[in-house]
Design brief:
Blueprint lengths: L4 E5 L3 H11 L4 E5 L2 H7 L8 E4 L8 H10 L8 E5 L4 H9 L4 E4 L4 H56 L7 H16 L11 H10 L12 H4 L7 H8 L1 H19 L5 H20 L20 H16 L10 H10 L7 H9 L1 H10 L4
Parallel strand pairs: 1-2, 1-3, 3-4, 4-5
Helix pairs in contact: 2-3, 6-7, 6-12, 6-14, 6-15, 7-11, 10-11, 11-12, 12-13
Length: 372
């Protein structure tokens, strides 16, 4: 087993020699004659495993040396034992209060010095093992979290593509709408009104949940969902039910997940299912309109959840600017004009204002993620 490294600091050569003689058969020993020398020596590899520090030294004393050691991340955990001729309780108390692990008075007894060094080194080794174990556990937890997120994303993408395969949306619809939502949300988050409602975490959750907005279309008959012409009034009423179908489907998945994992804490449940609950909200309300004329509930204004208001504009803009079996794509400028006309009618005025500010970002996204 490799010997531990001990750094001795004392301005008296006699004391340095005596301590070196006591320690040299058991440890690797380095010696310093001042506090300044200690502060330099601790950064020379290998770093000491323990420091024996005198108090009364020229320049900065032992107390100040220890303060400086504790301020530096690389040296703050090195155990320090004061070994000093100052034997008052006040000096010992001051040394221990600064973070020294022990205090030995001179003249020292070799056996006591060796025993106390051995004890402190064993404690340091135990702390190091615990820290390494904690670091390994943190890395393992992070690895498993990343694995779960990957599995979650694969399941989400599979479910989304299943829904998209039954719809007339094609190509990069999901990528575009998610990008549009993030552009709008980041523009709004800079405004005081939204600084608490749109945090970085909340935006990530909204963007992750957005692809499931039309999951309810799985429950719509093909004859209606894929009809190339105009829908009848009865058919449109059936199409409108996809909001409730999607919301019920996602709520059912949430409830079953909770039932299958009864041991989960409330905190874990909330964090794990947050994006699914967000998806439920978006699926249910993304066809509501600012003036209350939307569906399925007819709510209006700010009673419509903000993620759904963001989805509403992103979804309509994408529908306008992409081709469908029953229509040609509108030009970018035509779509922009339509969004403006629907300000305060279909869309939240704040969201439209964010859209107008980020007009160029929308154009870039449309061009980069074009189905062509």
């Amino acid at each position: 087993m490799e010997k531990a490294e001990i750094l001795i600091a004392d301005d008296e050569p006699v004391n340095l020699t005596a301590l070196t003689q006591v320690l040299k058969d058991f440890y690797k020993v380095r010696a310093c004659k001042s506090g300044e020398a200690v502060l330099q020596a601790v950064h020379i590899a290998p770093r000491p495993d323990l420091i024996l520090l005198d108090i009364m030294m020229p320049g900065i004393d032992g107390f100040m040396t220890l303060r400086k050691l504790r301020l530096h991340p690389a040296t703050q955990d090195i155990p320090v034992i004061f070994i000093s001729s100052l034997d008052s309780d006040d000096h010992e108390g001051q040394g221990l209060s600064l973070g020294a692990v022990d205090y030995i008075t001179k003249p020292f007894k070799p056996g006591i010095v060796l025993a106390r060094i051995k004890t402190q080194l064993e404690l340091k080794q135990a702390r190091d093992r615990l820290r390494n174990q904690n670091q390994w556990l943190e890395a393992e937890v992070n690895r498993r979290v990343q694995e779960n997120l990957l599995i979650q994303d694969v399941a989400l993408i599979s479910l989304t593509q299943l829904a998209e395969a039954r719809d007339d949306n094609t190509g990069n619809h999901i990528l575009r709408t998610c990008t549009y939502i993030e552009i709008l949300a980041r523009q709004l988050m800079s405004q005081p009104r939204y600084e608490f409602e749109l945090t970085e975490q909340k935006i990530r959750t909204i963007v992750k949940a957005a692809p499931l907005h039309d999951i309810g279309k799985i429950g719509i008959p093909d004859a209606i969902l894929l009809k190339p012409g105009k829908l009848s009034a009865e058919e449109f009423e059936i199409i409108k039910t996809h909001c409730q179908i999607g919301a019920r489907t996602l709520r059912g998945a949430i409830n079953q997940s909770i039932a299958l994992n009864p041991a989960l804490s409330e905190e874990t449940r909330l964090s794990s299912l947050e994006f699914v609950e967000m998806a439920e909200t978006i699926a249910k309300f993304h066809h509501e309109k600012w003036d209350g004329s939307g569906y399925p509930t007819g709510i209006s204004g700010r009673t419509i959840p903000l993620p759904a208001r963001l989805m509403a504009l992103a979804d309509v803009f994408d529908a306008l600017t992409t081709s469908r079996p029953y229509k040609q794509a509108w030009s970018f400028d035509e779509a922009v004009d339509q969004i403006r006309r629907q300000k305060g009618i279909h869309f939240d005025p704040d969201v439209v204002a964010a859209f107008e500010t980020e007009r160029e970002a929308f154009l870039t996204t449309l061009q980069q993620l074009s189905d062509r």
